[in-house]
Amino acid sequence: MEIFIFKLAMSESAAAQASTPTETFDTYWLWARASSRDYVGGPRSGKWMLFYDKSVLDDKWAAVKNLVEQDLLGGLAKCSTAKENPNATSSKSGVIIVYTSDYLDQEEVYRVATVLHEKMEYNKTMYYKTDEQTYAGAYVKNGSKKNHIYRYPLD
């Protein structure tokens, strides 16, 4: 697996800022990144997944995007759009993905979870999935029984 540096081109950034998830049909994801640094991902990158009903998805994405741009999270996030995604489990909900670059850095992984849980008032369990799991096809829709390595809050 390669290390990658994520940079949004100016045109992508402007388009993403002008778009709302539930009104975007031409791409699967809208992206946000911290302006103070590039996101560096690699073999140990992963993400927190927050699932929302589409009736609140646009507002929740705006809030996460703001947190990312203020560099309060892991530096990169994306949100599902209205474009039908074959990996989605429901057409009534969407997902916001918030990345961290190293799933073994549990202090950073759980710091991001704490910010999301508090700032987003997320009252459900959040799950953290490695990019390795994603690349291996670990999706509930594909029959995966456990497609995460961490959860928050811990019970």
Evaluate the radius of gyration. 15 Å
Major sheet: order of its strands?
2-5-6-4-7-8
CATH domain class: Alpha Beta
- Average pLDDT for all residues: 83
Helix run count: 4
How many structural units, i.e. domains? 1
Chain oligomer state? single chain
**Care to count the β-strands?**
8
| CATH homology superfamily | RNA Cap, Translation Initiation Factor Eif4e
* Helix content estimate: 25-40%
Order of helices and strands: EHEEEHEEHEHE
Structural class: alpha+beta
Give the CA-based shape.
globular
Would you give the CATH topology? RNA Cap, Translation Initiation Factor Eif4e
**Uncertain parts:** 7-17
CATH-level-2 architecture:
2-Layer Sandwich
The percentage of residues in β strands lies in 25-35%
- Terminal CA distance reads 33 Å
Main beta-sheet annotation: 6 strands, antiparallel
